[in-house]
Design a protein that fits this description.
The chain is an alpha+beta fold. Helix content is about 35%, strand content about 25%.
């Protein structure tokens, strides 16, 4: 009986109680590690943001060129994409035979003229339009058959291209002669 008493007493007296929780040092160390990881990630996030903006701008330009070509075919008229490097913009016009004049081509979604200004549009800010070359001219024209031409209406014999650039990253958009296939190599 005495041995049972000592056994129970010794278990209660010498039992180790484990307390859970974090010390202030552990919490500070976790905060420091998270801060270092965040500081390392910030430049990568900026690069990723520029890449996303560049890809979005390229997709917009490609779709606008394709739209200009499809309008030329569907309306049996000429359309032209006019690149303005000085103003960092481009616009699309179509030739209206009824009034014998070039008119702004309306965007099918907004019904406003298709004019993309990379300086004033917040969606494209920081983007630079450069090196448009379509048969030696800065404009891309499509005839009623969808054949790509230079500004004067002469069919392209070599691929034409225009570059979009942001933060040192450049993406070219090319248009092949005869078919007018628009690519981003």
């Amino acid at each position: 009986m005495i041995s049972a008493f000592f056994l129970r007493y010794s278990r209660q007296r010498f039992s180790v109680r484990v307390k859970t929780g974090f010390t202030i040092i552990e919490i500070i160390m976790v905060i420091v590690v998270i801060g270092i990881m965040a500081a390392a990630a910030v430049p990568r996030i900026d690069t990723l943001r520029k890449q996303i903006k560049l890809q979005g701008s390229v997709k917009k330009l490609v779709s606008d060129i394709r739209y200009a070509q499809s309008v030329a075919i569907s309306r049996h008229t000429n359309t032209i994409v006019i690149f303005d490097v000085a103003n960092n913009s481009y616009r699309i016009e179509w030739y209206n035979d009824a009034v014998a004049a070039w008119q702004a081509l309306p965007d099918p979604a907004t019904r406003s003229s298709i004019v993309i200004d990379f300086d004033t549009d917040a969606q494209y800010s920081g983007m630079t339009l450069s090196s448009p070359n379509f048969g030696g001219t800065v404009s891309l024209r499509f005839d009623w058959e969808g054949v790509p031409q230079d500004m004067a209406g002469v069919a392209l014999v070599a691929a034409g291209s225009v570059d979009l650039e942001i933060g040192g990253d450049v993406q070219a958009v090319t248009v092949t002669p005869q078919t007018g296939k628009v690519e981003t190599p």
